[in-house]
Design a protein that fits this description.
Blueprint: H1 2-7, H2 13-20, E1 24-29, H3 35-50, E2 54-58, H4 66-69, E3 88-92, H5 101-106, E4 111-116, E5 130-132, H6 139-150, H7 156-169, H8 178-193, H9 198-206, H10 211-221, E6 225-227, E7 232-237, H11 248-255, E8 263-270, E9 273-280, H12 288-293, E10 298-299, E11 303-309, H13 313-323
Parallel strand pairs: 1-2, 1-3, 3-4, 4-5, 7-8
Antiparallel strand pairs: 6-7, 8-9, 9-11, 10-11
This protein binds manganese (II) ion (MN).
Manganese (II) ion (MN) binds at residues 36, 93, 117, 138-139, 169.
């Protein structure tokens, strides 16, 4: 138990004081938001509302997955006159200034709080106003620690927001390391105690997929390449597939179930380069977060990604084989 308490360190008095002593906040999360970015923002906004404070939600977009699209109407993509009112900007789930996008640029000069769980980021604001805990599986779990430090009650609504970000970032519990599991599930136990339904939330996130997309994913999986005696499995997503929703959620679990695999990679062709995605088996002892940051990306030991501009699929494949040559 003592170990679990240290897993989520104390939130600084300066951070708590900055929230308590101000009234109007801007909340910003990373471009191309995932559920952790959007739902940590929503939870933070709700926490501030319960403290009687005002919060404006921002995100550059684009919103791509169902559970983020559903909430898009709550987020502004531009900064208007309310800028004068805003006293403090809270940046969530973003390891660099660039990740927070144009909206953050437009809010620059304000006191800034950073709450994030990325390991490879460069801290871009006053250290005493950051809560960066790289071992946390999601930013929403860190927002929960901030909530506790602020003395705000865990409502069902907040619990649901926090749980959604945790579920998606942990790959539905799959990518939790054994160090993360105990402390994270202690928090999840509190979330479900408010009466939220994991079953219903799981279905809300996963259901509604088109049969045509499931068939496209099957076609992508059928072209998987195997390298290093099957320790590295690689799936390719051509640019014309860019429109269908989050194939990675079906591709990685399938590849990681294959006998002998250590790392599953997804190479996604973009208009101007290749997006690399990596997932590692915990037993493989490979830090794919470190590997992704060596090519300008970031992430976590078991799940990470990077975008390399100006290269094609063949070059990407050569890079990939070099990156994982020690498997
Ligand atoms: Mn995240």
């Amino acid at each position: 138990m003592e170990k679990n308490r240290n897993f989520f360190p104390k939130v600084s008095d300066e951070l708590v004081g900055t929230i308590m002593n101000n009234d109007v906040f801007g909340i910003v999360s990373h471009v191309k938001p995932d559920a952790d970015a959007i739902y940590s923002s929503l939870a933070m906004s709700e926490i501030l509302a319960l403290l009687g404070k005002k919060a404006y939600l921002y995100n550059d977009g684009p919103f791509l997955s169902k559970e983020t699209l559903d909430k898009q109407y709550l987020f502004s993509q531009t900064v208007g006159k309310e800028k004068e009112e805003i006293e403090v900007v809270i940046v969530l789930d973003s390891s660099t200034k660039d990740r927070a996008g144009k909206v953050f640029e437009n809010l620059s000069g304000k006191e800034t709080i950073v709450i994030d769980h990325h390991s490879s980021g460069v801290p871009f604001y006053k250290e005493e106003l950051t809560y960066i805990v790289s071992q946390s599986p999601s930013t929403t779990l860190l927002v929960d620690s901030v909530r506790e430090a602020l003395g705000v009650e865990l409502t069902k609504k907040i619990a649901e927001y926090l749980f959604i970000g945790f579920l998606t970032d942990s790959g539905f519990f799959h990518f939790l390391s054994s160090e993360q599991a105990g402390p994270s599930l202690e928090k999840v136990t509190k979330f479900v105690s408010t009466g939220i339904s994991p079953y219903r939330i799981f279905d809300y996130i996963q259901d509604g997929r088109k049969l045509s997309d499931v068939k496209k994913i099957a076609a992508l999986l059928s072209k998987t390449d195997s390298f290093y005696d099957g320790k590295l499995l690689v799936c390719y997503e051509p640019v014309e597939n860019d429109t269908f929703e989050r194939p990675s959620f079906m591709i990685y679990p399938n590849l990681l179930q294959v006998e002998g695999v250590k790392v599953a990679a997804l190479l996604k062709e973009k208009e101007d380069g290749i997006e690399f995605g990596f997932r590692a088996k915990e037993s493989a002892n490979v830090d794919v977060g470190e590997i992704a940051s060596s090519i300008g990306g970031g992430g976590h030991a078991l799940a990470s990604g990077a975008t390399v501009h100006g290269i094609g699929m063949e070059e990407a494949k050569t890079m990939l084989l070099k990156l994982f040559s020690s498997l």
